[in-house]
Every structure is written in C-alpha cells, then in structure tokens.
C-alpha cells in the first residue's frame, strides 16, 4: 500500500482554536498540509497558526450557514481544492438528564455538535464532488460517548451517537465520487473539556461516585487523526477508538 504524499494537500480543521483541533492543525502543518483553521475566535486561530505560511485562519461559527459557505469559499479561492475535512468543532453542553435539560441548552448543543457538523460536511462534499474522481476524505470527531455515555450528559451523548449516523451516511453517499468518511472516538485526552467534567479531580461515574481518571497527551490523539487522513484513496479507516490507558471505558461504572 502506497501512502500518498501530504505536501500540498489541503485540509480544513474546525474548532482549530484550542484542544484537539489545535493539535491536529499543528500536526498537519508540520506534515506538509496546507490548513484552513476555522473557529469562532480569530485570535486563538492565529495562535494556532503561529505565523505558519501554509495556515489560513478563517473565523467561522459552524452553526451559521453563511459562515460555513464563506469558510469553504475562502479555502477554494486560496488553494482551489479541499482534500480533508476534520469535522471537530463541538461543545460538551450542560450537565443534565433528559428530565432536567432546558430546550435552549438542548438546541445549543445540537446546533454545534450536529447541525454544524452537517453544514461543514455538506460544504466539503460539494467541493470534493467537483474534484471527482479524486474526491477527498472527511474525518468526524465523535467521542467514546458515542459508545458509552457518562451520567447526566444527555445532549452530548445523543449528538455523538448521531455523529456515527452522519459518518456512515457520508461514507455510503460518497462512494461514487471518491469521497470517504471515518470517525475517531477519543476518550480522556488532556484538553480543556476534561476540566469541565472533572476528569482530573473526580469525574461522575455511573454508580454515583466520583473518580479521578487517567488522561493522555492531545498530540497522541492528533497523530491518530493524521494516520486516518494520510491513508491512500484505496483505503478508508471507518472507525478509530483511542483512549487513555486504564480509563473506565470498557466496563464503565
């Protein structure tokens, strides 16, 4: 199996201003990709880019259709193509069970995690169809919550389960155009969101207790994304699960 060169390939990374998105964008730039960095806060995108000549910072709210269209138009205007989308932007949402969550909190979580992912995937697929038969590759950032939710995370868990359906639908519908789609489900990589749910100080477990859980470096998760992105067109990695060693995932609770 011959792995294609990455130099000159064009990638779009959403949620690139922090966390997994920032780590993936930097790894891609180091590996020779030209990378469009998308996120709501321009200053954070510029910090991710750190002056790299092959980085393009595009402020974008993925829940706003016009922002998403402008993002991909900017990429096509600058580089003429889209080879990879890392569909990463997301929020954890409120700590609430189904009987407690407000409609506003539910809508806000769905808007970013699901609708935003659909909007970005749609724009990427349109660009990739125009490149057919060369096509392109989409990598959706799911979560181990797509397999085994945490307590009191109904909005996040539902959107991440839905992401799996989006991944499979894109993979199926893209076949005739050389477009592949895979999903990476990450557990307990060391990012700001882990502070939100208390992984380092005591995360809520299924039995009601709290437990300090292990974490792993975000750069290791980024390398897994890079592996998926760098596969040749003849192969598609449909699903990757990567977790901190020893975290309560298998047999959680």
UniProtKB/TrEMBL annotation:
Signal peptide (residue range): none
Family label: Belongs to the short-chain dehydrogenases/reductases (SDR) family.
The protein's name in its UniProt record: Putative oxidoreductase
Annotated organism of origin: Arthrobacter globiformis (strain ATCC 8010 / DSM 20124 / JCM 1332 / NBRC 12137 / NCIMB 8907 / NRRL B-2979 / 168)
Alphabetically ordered keywords of this record: Oxidoreductase
PANTHER family according to UniProt: 5-KETO-D-GLUCONATE 5-REDUCTASE (PTHR43669), BLR5618 PROTEIN (PTHR43669:SF12)
Keyword set includes Oxidoreductase: yes
Superkingdom as given in the UniProt entry: Bacteria
GO MF term set: oxidoreductase activity
Record keyword Acetylation present: no
Gene3D superfamilies named among the record's database cross-references: NAD(P)-binding Rossmann-like Domain
Pfam family, one: adh_short
CDD domains per the UniProt record, alphabetical: SDR_c (cd05233)
